[in-house]
UniProtKB/TrEMBL annotation:
This is Ferrochelatase. It is found in: Plastid, Chloroplast. Its EC number is 4.98.1.1. Pfam families: Ferrochelatase. It catalyses: heme b + 2 H(+) = protoporphyrin IX + Fe(2+). The chain crosses the membrane at residues 446-465. Catalyzes the ferrous insertion into protoporphyrin IX.
């Protein structure tokens, strides 16, 4: 079975220095009509009653443990989970002990809704120990460092978000995907609640989990919206889940199934091939177009030291898409490169910008960019690929440029996600997790205050030293 139980995943996501050999979806899954086995006699659509605003975004966490910075655009209210079905059956008061209530939790990265959200969003991102992986001894610097980097990076990021309309489209698109998935599952006779949990912005994963608890969900499928597994994406979200589930009597007994990666699924591969085929037809000489897969990068150390399977999975994914295209009679040349590197460390190579220049120099005239690590449009497709890379490609001698849209709510893709959920349900098991000693120490409020104190002093010293400042800025941005 492709999805694994929570405990299985957690043992693989001991993030530093351990081997992350994720098992993945087999390529041609058999359809498993679990809907016939699970009692769905009464549909349990939750009233999405917790219209928390951004001040209350994180539920049930004390301030000292909460690394998340928040902003509150005045007057904005919204559902605390990504999908508001609003069909109004109060689950708490109507629930029967024997009744199966299935939930699907979509995990995603999240993005700033407005330009004012950019810096706090970046803070949340850089405060994640799966994004900036400091040695344990220096972990106390995580948050001061996150503050520093987020403040320095915010102006550049804001420019990017401003150029795509003043915020990230991720929340809207993910909500649409959640709605579409719910409908697809209903069509397959599998009524579910679908929740959206973002890692770095609203609606946070923590909020979605609280809603799952309020809705008394009895079985949960976790579906990260990243086709390939990386420590920095799916791994990070799973770690957040692990921390919450461990502390809660109800959640720690809840049968959970996590679909860690699904890039091998036939429906996904075929949907990607469909998009590429369609986009190729726009070129005057489709057979001469270079198919240019551009994946979000990760630092090399993730793959080489921490065993992140991301690169292997990405390469296999590209292979499968190309095989599918060949089977359809499309034999274009292709290449894979990695984009969006941040900071002074080595990232996965080759880098997208360098390859574009090389291809131009080699005389490639037509190129079709295919974003491949993410299934929604976002800043790195709309700004980085459509604007920066397109300009660079044209300057480098490439004359004809195209870009495949992200899958979004493409029906064949959503149907395949629905099948993945149905196939994953039987393997749901209660997760068993125990906190390791160092994590327990991290939660101690006294130790937290001491670490923050010394970390902040160090960060200020860095900030106030002009030499350090210049070096820092030049290296990082
Ligand atoms: C598979 C996808 C992604 C991986 C792997 C990933 C790793 C990763 N990202 C950063 C730093 C940043 N990422 C940012 C935005 C961003 N990242 C992804 C996806 C992956 N990141 C998405 C979809 C988005 C866009 C969200 C949106 O608002 O549309 C940003 C912020 C934007 C910017 O300033 O460039 C940063 C910073 C690191 C360091 C990392 C691996 C360690
Ligand atoms: Fe990223």
């Amino acid at each position: 079975m492709s999805a694994t139980s929570y405990s299985g995943v957690l043992s693989q996501t001991k993030l530093l220095g351990s081997n992350l050999n994720c098992s993945t979806h087999r390529r041609f899954p058999t359809s498993c009509r679990l809907s016939e086995r699970i009692s769905t006699s009464r549909v349990f659509l939750s009233s999405c009653s917790s219209t928390s605003d951004k001040r209350n975004g994180m539920l049930g966490r004390s301030h000292h443990c909460n690394p998340i910075e928040k902003r509150n655009p005045v007057g904005q209210t919204f559902c605390s989970v990504g999908v508001c079905t609003h069909r109004g059956v109060d689950v708490e008061s109507n629930s029967h002990a024997t009744e199966e209530r299935v939930g699907v939790l979509l995990l995603n990265l999240g993005g700033p809704d407005t330009l004012d959200d950019v810096q706090p969003f970046l803070f949340n991102l850089f405060a994640d120990p799966d994004i900036i992986r400091l040695p344990r001894l220096f972990r106390f610097l995580q948050k001061p460092l996150a503050k520093l980097i987020s403040v320095f990076r915010a102006p550049k990021s804001k420019e990017g978000y401003a150029s795509i309309g003043g915020g990230s489209p991720l929340r809207k698109i993910t909500d649409e995907q959640a709605d579409a998935l719910k409908i697809a599952l209903e069509a397959k006779n599998m009524p579910v609640n679908v929740y959206v949990g973002m890692r770095y912005w609203f609606p946070f994963t923590e909020e979605a989990i609280q809603q799952i608890k309020r809705d008394r969900i009895t079985r949960l499928v976790v579906l990260p919206l990243y086709p390939q597994f990386s420590i920095s994406t799916t791994g990070s979200s799973i770690r957040v889940m692990q921390n919450i589930f461990r502390e809660d009597a109800y959640l720690s007994r809840l049968p959970v199934s996590i679909i860690k990666s699904w890039y091998q699924r036939e429906g996904y591969i075929k949907s990607m091939a469909d998009l590429i085929e369609k986009e190729l037809t726009i070129f005057s000489k489709p057979e001469e177009v270079m198919i240019f897969f551009s994946a979000h990068g990760v630092p090399v150390s993730y793959v080489e030291n921490a065993g992140d399977p991301y690169k292997d999975q990405m390469e296999e994914c590209i292979y499968l898409i190309m095989q599918e295209l060949k089977a359809r009679g499309t034999f274009n040349e292709h290449t894979l490169a990695f984009q969006s590197r941040v900071g002074p460390v080595q990232w996965l190579k080759p880098y997208t910008d360098e390859v574009l220049v090389e291809l131009g120099q080699k005389g490639v005239k037509s190129l079709l960019a295919v974003p491949v690590s993410f299934v929604s449009e976002h800043i790195e497709t709309l700004e980085e690929i459509d604007m920066e890379y397109k300009e660079l490609a044209l300057e480098s001698g490439i004359e004809n440029w195209g870009r495949v849209p992200a899958l979004g709510c493409t029906s064949s893709f959503i149907m395949d996600l629905a099948d993945a959920v149905i196939e994953a349900l039987p393997s749901a098991t209660a997760m068993s997790t125990s906190r390791n000693t160092s994590e327990a120490v991290d939660q101690d409020p006294m130790i937290y205050v001491i670490k923050m104190f010394f970390g902040s002093i160090l960060a200020f010293v860095l900030l106030l030293s002009p030499k350090m400042l210049v070096a820092f800025r030049n290296k990082l941005f």
